[in-house]
# Entry
Amino acid sequence: MAKALIDDRLWELVEPILPPPKPRHFRHPGRKPLSNRAVLNGIIFVLKTGLRWIDLPAELGWGCGKLCRERLRDWHEAGVWVALHAVLLAELNHADRIDWSRAALDSSKVRALNGGDKTGKNPTDRGKKGSKHHVITDAKGTPLAAIVTGANRNDVTQALPLVDAVPPVGGKSGRPRRQPKKAYADRAYDSQKLRAELRARGITPKIARRRTAHGSGLGIYRYVAEQVQAWLHGFKRLRTRYERTAFMHEAFLSLACCLICYRHL
# Structure
């Protein structure tokens, strides 16, 4: 058995969220299913190393690739990663480790080797198929939300969906919070309409303007979003998209955001 990738504290947060196992047949129960904790170790191992499912070593004791893939799909479909992200954000908020004074938005492109939905021609990679990871973070670099689109989608069109994807964050008395005071973004988000929409939501836009000299000074606030993108690409399975279905790639992205949030605890 390899060294576990999940410590006891993380498992205490994950276990109550996982759906109950399917009931076993009374007369012919068959082989006892592998524990959810072991399978989750296998999923995280694939996420970190970038291995193909079929190459997951059986000697690790974390199940075969087919089993891990099916559990990842089922758990994502059941909303496990969304719920876990909300729990982790609430823990961070309770510990005063989320800075709502400002947020930062950024995107990064990844090649989609097998095409599929939510892909498009990557303008920075000779028009090859690719996807984009759009991320919004708090002022300390905690990922608040992340979405996947085609590589040809303009950042400005995804800013509002990204802001609206931030879940209500509890952890403190009063109403859950989901909006920062300010939003920082680079020139790709320059739009008067976007600024108006953000102000309507009670968010002050801090967006660099196009056709102006560099050196706006906003980079000292926006760098945290770029940092989170680098952390996401530290998970090798997210550097290149192999899944034809965006659903599975989104599952990996959501799980990676959860693991980054857990590091901040």
Observations:
- The chain has two domains: 8-20+31-77, 101-264.
- DSSP finds eight helices and seven strands in the chain.
